[in-house]
Amino acid sequence: SGGDGGDGTGGTTTSGTTTGTTGGGGSAQGSADVRAEWGLPDLDYDVGDSLNVFQWTDYWPSGTVEIFEKAYGVNVNVSNYASNEEMFNKLKAGGTGQFDLIFPSDYMVNILASQGMIQQVNLDKLSNFDNLERRWIDQAPYDPDPGRWSVPYQWGTSGCGWNTNMTPDIEYPFSWDLMWSDEYGGQMTMLNDMRETIGASLKRLGYSLNSTKESEIQEAKEALIEQKPLLTTYSSVSRDAALQNEQASPVHLWSGDAFSAYWATYTDGESPIGYRVPKEGGVVWVDTAAVTKEAANVNAAHAFITFFLNAEINAKISNYVYYPTPNAAAKEYIDDAALNNPAIYPPDEVMQNLEFIRNIGQATQLYSEAWTEIQNA
Amino acid sequence: MTEYDVRMDGVTKRFGDVLAVDDVDFEIESGKFLTLLGPSGCGKTTTLRMIAGFEEPSEGAVHIDGEQVNDRQAFERDTSMVFQSYALFPHMTVGENVAFGLQMQGLPGEEPNKGALDRLLRRDNSEEIRERVSRTLELVELPGMEDRDIDQLSGGQQQRVALARALVTEPTVLLLDEPLGALDLKLRKNMQVELKNLQEELGITFVYVTHDQEEALTMSDEIAVMNDGHLEQLGTATEIYEQPASEFVADFIGETNLVHGDYATVDDGAVLESNGVTYRVPEEADAEGRVAFAIRPEKIRLGEEAEGLPNRFEAEVVDEIYKGNLGKFEVRLANGQDLTVDLQITDQGEYLSVGESVEVGWRPENAVVLTR
Amino acid sequence: MTEYDVRMDGVTKRFGDVLAVDDVDFEIESGKFLTLLGPSGCGKTTTLRMIAGFEEPSEGAVHIDGEQVNDRQAFERDTSMVFQSYALFPHMTVGENVAFGLQMQGLPGEEPNKGALDRLLRRDNSEEIRERVSRTLELVELPGMEDRDIDQLSGGQQQRVALARALVTEPTVLLLDEPLGALDLKLRKNMQVELKNLQEELGITFVYVTHDQEEALTMSDEIAVMNDGHLEQLGTATEIYEQPASEFVADFIGETNLVHGDYATVDDGAVLESNGVTYRVPEEADAEGRVAFAIRPEKIRLGEEAEGLPNRFEAEVVDEIYKGNLGKFEVRLANGQDLTVDLQITDQGEYLSVGESVEVGWRPENAVVLTR
Amino acid sequence: MATERTSGGSGLVTRVRRHRYVGLVFNAAPATFWLGVFFVAPLAVMLYYSFGTRGAFGTVLLDPEHLGIQQYAYFFVPDGASIPQTIWWTLGWALGHFVPFVPNVAGGEPTAYVQLLFKSIYFGVVTTVFAFAIGYPMAYFVARKAPANYRNILVALVVLPYWASYLVRVYAIKIMLAKNGLLDNLLTTLNIADNVSLLYSNFAVGFGLVYIYVPFMILPVYASLEQLDTTLEEAAMDLGADRWDAFRRVTLPLSMPGVIAGSFLVFIPAVGAYVIPELLGGTDTATVGEFIASQFGSAGNWPLGAAAAFILMVIMFLGIWIYQSRTGGDIL
Amino acid sequence: MSSVTVSWFKRTRSRFIQRFGGVALGLEAIALYLFLYIPIVVMIALSFNDSQTAIVWKGFTTEWYSALLDGRAIARVDPQAAWIALKNSLYIAAVTVVVSTTLGTMLALALDRYDFPGRSLLQGVTFMPLIIPSIVMGISLLLFFNFVGLTQGIGTAIIGHVAFDISYVTVIVLARLSSFDRTLEEAAMDLGARELETFRWVTFPIIKPGVIAGALLAFAMSFDDFVVTFFIIGNQNTLPIFFFGMVRQGISPGVNVIATVILLATFALIALAQKVAGLTW
Ligand SMILES: Nc1ncnc2c1ncn2[C@@H]1O[C@H](COP(=O)(O)OP(=O)(O)OP(=O)(O)O)[C@@H](O)[C@H]1O
Ligand SMILES: Nc1ncnc2c1ncn2[C@@H]1O[C@H](COP(=O)(O)OP(=O)(O)OP(=O)(O)O)[C@@H](O)[C@H]1O
Ligand SMILES: NCCCCNCCCN
Ligand SMILES: [Mg+2]
Ligand SMILES: [Mg+2]
Questions:
Q1: Same domain (yes/no): E122, E203
Q2: Looking at the DSSP assignment, which residues form a beta bridge with residue A292?
Q3: What's the complex ipTM?
Q4: Which residues of D touch A90 (CB under 8 A)?
Q5: Which of D73, D86, D314, E267 is the most buried (most CB within 10 A)?
Q6: pLDDT at residue number B108
């Protein structure tokens, strides 16, 4: 229910087969055939034989990790989370040594770095770093200087999705008020994500979603408490399924989930699913890979980053999750339908309306308290 | 008032295939003490439970106080039961246990408008109930024990509470199912006397179940001996002991010597031949062919006392058991017939020893011929 | 071998404040049957458990077979116990139960080097053990029952297995704590006889605990009557019954009439004056002042038989209880003294009824003067 | 014959071996150690943390200047209320909220967390009452009415689901209650309601709690009824009680130990439930269990979570203690 | 008086109960059994549903099960991960059962056999894990491991499981011991058995059913635990944790399939345990 920030938590361990012929360093490990098949580089460092990854729920197609495992002879253990806060607290509780590689969003990279919970990425170990579009490297206000702390994985927006079978009358442009309308009471869900959901409320009220003003945050909180009876639940996971199975609409969700639902229901050139960022604007975000401070398998973590920076792999992921990729090289493998969809890759004028969530320092406390109160109201 | 408080009329009870009670007829006169006696499983409890209303007869009719009560439920019958296990309510005090029956009856005449719901909501504790409870506890010699918990009582005290609980409603018939079975011997003997006195004092009809023949002999006005579901014999203690109707009864009640043989009438009476010895026995109209006679150990005389008796034989003492008040001797006749003889030790030191030769004898009238 | 198998030497046992056994001394001759008799809680079990080694005496010494064994544990003593509850191992067959003691002893002479650990790891089942188990089962009349489960046995059979298990190790002394307590009356009587026979046959010393005086009288060579932790009297059955040492013993064993009064010696013997009546009693060296005498109900004569007896009184029958083999009469002397008289009913019909006047009498020798 | 076995070495070894506490120490020490270190000590640590303060980004400040009872105050005391006000508001609100027909006469409300606590206790009570209402008759049926030779099977059927993974069963409930699921369809077909979303509601949480915990009520009640001497009921009827009175006055009170045990077994986990409300509940079904969990998850406020956990534990123990001291009975 | 005067109301009420009471209770019992089993049956049935959504019946298929056997993902549920979680669960439960059964049995013996100062305190502490809400136990262990700096994982999970399983074993073995007839031990000693022999040959075989029952319960409690494990297992998964993640993502045919397999596997395991244990009882 409204409770824990992490539905989808506790995650699933994908993993298995150590195909690795345990051998010397570098690329001697793993299967050269598999590397060749996907165009993966041989590595000039010892990868080691295991890797603990902490990743968002459902953020790559199944089978992806197996390719890495086979290619480099590494046994990968994956756990999942459903919000940045959940991931952060898990690291706090159990130590950062539990995982080698994590996928924080923008603002969380900043927090983690300032808390000393991640280490800098060694660009020397990433032969294909330049596959990334420049703008995601140059304009990364969340990545502290000096050095490089994070490597973009996927990016996207947060907005509203709907299913016309349930709510035929929704038409863009609409305001965030949509999510407060009595008409859809009992069939809406909001993200179970502190910054996202309070952010949406702030936006609706015309404030910055990085507001640090107590009064504004209070106001946003009141609005959310008012909205609560209209919601079935707060959830960030399987929103695609909820839309697709007509269990909720409209839904506050991340763009990729909306398009998963869109394509799953796509028949005869149309789909009942729609997605837009409300006109007041919303969140643009980028999820990145970062290496934890106490990572035991730093090399394997870098190997994995190299792996997903690979154009084909990255496109394979993007084509599955329907998020825009920050990887320029990958674009040639991405479905055109996605590339040309302005709702997936928003045009600049839309982008201008969007904000990154930022590390707002001590003010985070205000959000936490508000979020706790919302959930328990 | 009818003459009979309880009448069983061809009552039969089957549990599936088991024939627990088989066509039983008897009547109990008002104010009498009737004992149902018999070995385990013979149907005593079932009979009692049919009177109480816990079981319905498969056939036949149960009458209480002149009315056929077959289809009355237990709480509609004017009987009270004392259970072997006492069945005291463990969550109530002594006083509450005893008051229970009065409360359930709603004490007719008192607070007449109180409906069942009222009583359900609060237990009533009117003056009259208190009064009667205290009187009844005095009767069973537990005065002032109202507030004790059941588990603070000894077995004997619990027994008395069970009795008080059954008596307090002044039932027409009191039913007792081995009420003393759980007590030790000494207490049991005391309670036998007390129960009997109480019954005589109150004049209530008792139906008493036991498998202890001594208890039955001591207490009853009449004894109904049951065997395998049917009634073997109904009679007074003396009748049952001295004129048993069957080998079963003779054997079950008291100790006895049974001798099987061929019956024949002779000039001056009857004889029974067994193993080459001819015993004189009382005449018995039904007897013919192979029958048996029974002679009680205490009816056999030894030594001089045996002289001149119609049945008189040489015997050897083969075993002796000292019992304090009596000696129990196993004697063997010349034809190998063993007999048990009880000899009351009326003087210190007087005794027989194993191996001794002795004369034994008895009067034919003291034996009974048994045809079944 | 010493003359005495068991000797208790000033043995006392305290449980906290409770004095369970109080300075008890006795000896048991080899091969004898000694019964510890007394009311519940008098310390019988505790005494037995000190012999077995389950309790250590607080004071005094226990000797078995001539050796002081106070600080030997149960498994180091050459005694075997038969428990009231039998304490058969429910997870073992009859054979395994009986074999257990032999296996634990490691059968001396056989596989002599087996240490405790060895025995811990496996139980052995050698030919000899099998042999002895089967012999012992025959002894208790359960031949060939080795493979039965315990719960397939009747109470009486379980009793025999318990006996066999205790006997198989050929203990010097067999200890039995109310071994027949759980059996019904009929079976109990049979087992009494069998136990006694077995004991005579095997010549093993038995220490037998019971609170049933009839059992004690029937079986024992010697009886130790205990009361409240101490030994009241030690003697044969006849001694205990006919010459009780105290009022307690007289009252506890059998029934008795106790008359309290003032003792005085006269020319030709002794008398006791009570309530205006002078009774002739046997002379008793210790007696003086207020004492009592006891006369057993069966020693009192009625009617003609009372004629000419030194003690002879007019009395009235105030109560009668019919017991089949005897009549129990409550008679009241002129001075209000009540006496119980047992009359064996040696002829049918012969009987007295309440209210009748009758003469009672007894020989002074049949009475006992009790000074404590 | 004397075939005694003599104990080797009498002196010190024997005496030590025979000392009454040797066996005790040997047997009790390992488990006592384990429980002491991995059960009692963690509770102590939890208590310690509950006096801490949360720093930015979820750090826990435990230095002297941050140690205090502020978490408890935050939990119990509404903004700007004095202690008497807190008590008055809390009591007044609770009465007004849970007792029918009583208005909230107090001028304010207790904190959201206290409300949450009340709500969880209310969930526990409702679950217990329902479990009793449906569990008792069934236990009675199995113990008293069902043919004796079916009794064991019937009991086994109650226990069987309990062996199935708890989460699997909650999932099964989720399927039942889902939109367009079995119950939804049933209600639609019966024309009772259309297209209702039963999932993500108080109803769903209550349904799940009862579903999961009702065996805990049935089993002890069955056990107490089964061992209850039926002659007691007969005795009551013999004394003039009809069937209802006999049940009401004798059977029911005597089965109370089972009912009480069952009630505790249902109530305790229901109040602390975390998984069921998490999976079946919606936005308005937060419980203390979820609240505590979220303080260690997304909310990242350990001291508050620890304080709430400690408060929950104390409330449970108080309940049990009050019961035991009033009746002298054991619940287990 | 000839018969007891009984109110019409009572007589009728009693007759009514006599006649219809049993039937009414029977119907209630049937309804409750349905309540307990229908959801599970529906869940299993829907695991054969030929649909991606798993709720509305669209037709029969065993496709999901073949996918499972082939190691293919079923609607995002990755069987590979389920197997690893299963392995972890079995491993944790196995170690937990061995340790907690041993310690719990010993503790039960100590509590049953000795009277010592602090006995009731120890007994209280032993029962506490049974009545403390799981979440409290999970949280306190999490904080404790964090406090002493133990890295969370399978090892810490086992530690936590043993801590609550000791209680289950102790309570059950204590119950068994309370009906244990101590004279059996005396009988054994009397027949020449020393303390250890007595334990090996008499005490243990007789309390064994209790020990086995305790072990079975301990296994079930460990194998099925979610809440405590969730907080203390670090980056590892057990079956319940894996499954919790799945369930939170919603209803999908994959979850049905895994749930059904878990269910059947548990039943098979229990049946096996009963059988093995039954043989040794
Ligand atoms: N409810 C029942 N169902 C089936 N058989 C029964 C039932 N009650 C009694 N019986 C059988 O009926 C027969 C008579 O039983 P009953 O209890 O009346 O014997 P009893 O004379 O009281 O024996 P006991 O002295 O052992 O109490 C027995 O064979 C018994 O097994
Ligand atoms: N372990 C014990 N702790 C405290 N008191 C005990 C213990 N064992 C026995 N007693 C007390 O010692 C006294 C004698 O007990 P014991 O068991 O020897 O009596 P008993 O003659 O065998 O009685 P019964 O015929 O009832 O078996 C009793 O008062 C009893 O309560
Ligand atoms: N299913 C994975 C979705 C990941 C989305 N991350 C968004 C972070 C926004 N703050
Ligand atoms: Mg009977
Ligand atoms: Mg004793």
A1: yes
A2: A118
A3: 0.84
A4: 297
A5: D86
A6: 46
